[in-house]
Amino acid sequence: MNPATPSQFSEHRKRRRDASPPPRHFHGPQSHSRLSQRRRPWSFFQHLSDNFFAFDMGNFVSGLFGSRWSKDDGLKVYKGLLHARSRDLTVVTEDEAGTVQRVLDRRVKDSRKAALEAAVKRPQWQKREPYYKKAHKETRRNDTRLEEIEIDVKLHEERLAEIQKLNKAAKEDLSELYKPLTVEEENEVRECFNARGPSSKVLVLHESSNIEVSKEKFQCLRPGCWLNDEVINLYLELLKEREKREPKRFLKCHFFNTFFYKKLACGKNGYDYKSVKRWTTRKKLGYELIECDKIFVPVHKDVHWCLAIINMKENTFQYLDSLGGMDHNVPSILARYIAEEVKDKSNKIINTSSWHEEIVDDIPLQQNGWDCGMFMLKYIDFHSRGLNLSFSQENMKYFRMRTAKEILKLRAD
């Protein structure tokens, strides 16, 4: 074989350069040498889909190869994928009742916005009851024995409280409070109840208070009748005198009459201190209210008698209603009164806002519609002695006879 000349060689090279590339064969795989594969480093990455670099969220691999895969956190390619598959995309939402709704064929243009909307539609977090409380309730509901035990405990506590109250009352000397009337005393009271003559006839006159009780007024002490102001106020005067006779046996008390609270609470704003300011001067009383242990204030509610007590020792206000009622306005007015009274008479300031209102719910209650006045007088009588209210509706007939006897003699025992 003859060697080729240079001109022939260049012509050969030129013809090879201009020649059309050989046709590709699709009927079988093409073979490549290892050397050719090493010379083409992009052959592996070119076969990778763009999705690989799209989900390179850290942009580590993407950054190695320039701007072909830009740094966009993969969001652009991810949006493209969502857009391409949006027709088959199913968005699952949950309503407030917890039921799942499937919404088909909903295009998602912004994935972040869709996620936020789904989060907003979820039920907000609510404070729930602790599990141990729920379990405790379920246990109590299922175990009826616990309820029976609880009822038994309450009954035993009530019985124990009654026994303690009786034991305390047993230690107190109540013989003087229930001393029976003699035959002469009973006859005298009955004669006054049934006395003949004009109803205006004066049976009793109390000179120091100038209170007189006529035959008509006296008959209010009969069973089934309402007590009137004259009888109540005269009996309160007798309690004052009893305390002066035997100061060691009784608490130091002040007894307002039935007209005091009406005067005090009759102002334009439901309060008028000036109208009762002169009622409690030291010249009239011989003492000041700040020196008392208890101050009794009768309160008349149209046809019903109640009692308010200003407890100066314990700094409390008590309201006693024989029907079990409560009027918070009365202690409020008396708190205002006692603060102004002490400042005016004793030149001292007391803060009644720190005093508390005692709700007395264990007092004896009347069982009819006419013994409220008698209950009020016995509330005063027992409290002035420092005793518990150990009486009931059954004692009212006796107390009426005894009060009538004491009024006729002008002396409270």
TrEMBL record:
UniProt keyword terms in alphabetical order: Coiled coil, Hydrolase, Protease, Thiol protease, Ubl conjugation pathway
Region (Disordered) residue spans: 1-38
GO molecular function, one term: ubiquitin-like protein peptidase activity
Stored InterPro entries: Papain-like_cys_pep_sf, Peptidase_C48_C
GO biological process: protein desumoylation; proteolysis
Pfam families recorded: Peptidase_C48
Coiled coil segments of this chain: 146-173
Residues annotated as domain Ubiquitin-like protease family profile: 211-383
Domain of life: Eukaryota
Family label: Belongs to the peptidase C48 family.
UniProt-recorded name of the protein: Ubiquitin-like protease family profile domain-containing protein
Organism of origin: Urochloa decumbens
